[in-house]
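User: I would dearly like some help making sense of a protein record. This is the protein in question:
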Amino acid sequence: MSRAASIILLAAAGGLAWFTLRSRQGAAAAPTLPAFGFDPSLEPFGGPGPPDAPIFPEIPDAGKDTAAGALPPAPAEPVFGFDASLDPFGGPGPLQLVEGKPMLRWFSPGEFVRGGVDWWPMMNSDLLTRMDDFRSRLGVPVAISPAAGALGRHLGTTDASQHNVDRWGEVRAADVMPIPSLFHRVTLSDAVAAARAAGFTGIGAYPDWRPRPGVHLDVRSDQSAGAPATWGGINIGGTQTYVSLADALSREVTA
């Protein structure tokens, strides 16, 4: 064999050896794909999961017993009134008896704190029942006035106000304000009509209250539901002046 042929043969053998080595190195360095064949880094919108992955997370069978042999406990009901997180439009909550008070749908004990005092334990039960009925008849949310004296007041034993707990030993009156809804506007005349239908024995209309017009509701014992005491209160020169119910309603303002 000539010298030239030997050189060509050796070069070919060397090239084959180099190619084999590089091929082996390349195979070893190849990226390993996930077992299910999908590389999330290559699919910005998220591709399929592994073939054996459930499409939806497993939902426990509510009918199966727990490990302790008992069914999972039912979700706790709200203690009283309605849960706003469950009904943003102010629907009624479950009827509940709380602290010996009547079962209500529209009011909860926490609403009866005014002037730093929790008046709930001293609320007259008949007043609470009629307030709930009033709210149902009116068809819009009803808020207790933010004024400190909207519920109970300490006025001494001689003052005959139905708010006076010193004389009556309980709260017999509440000042409330209807809250208009997007689809249901109400007037003071509507509120007075609802108060009459609910059987209050004392009804006062106040068109100039803030933040909105409102009504005084009470259950005085010297009047009847069919012939309640009625009056109005209007703002004259910065002073609340008592007038007839008709005069107050003549200043009708949509609540």
Q: What stands out?
A: The longest strand covers residues 229-236.
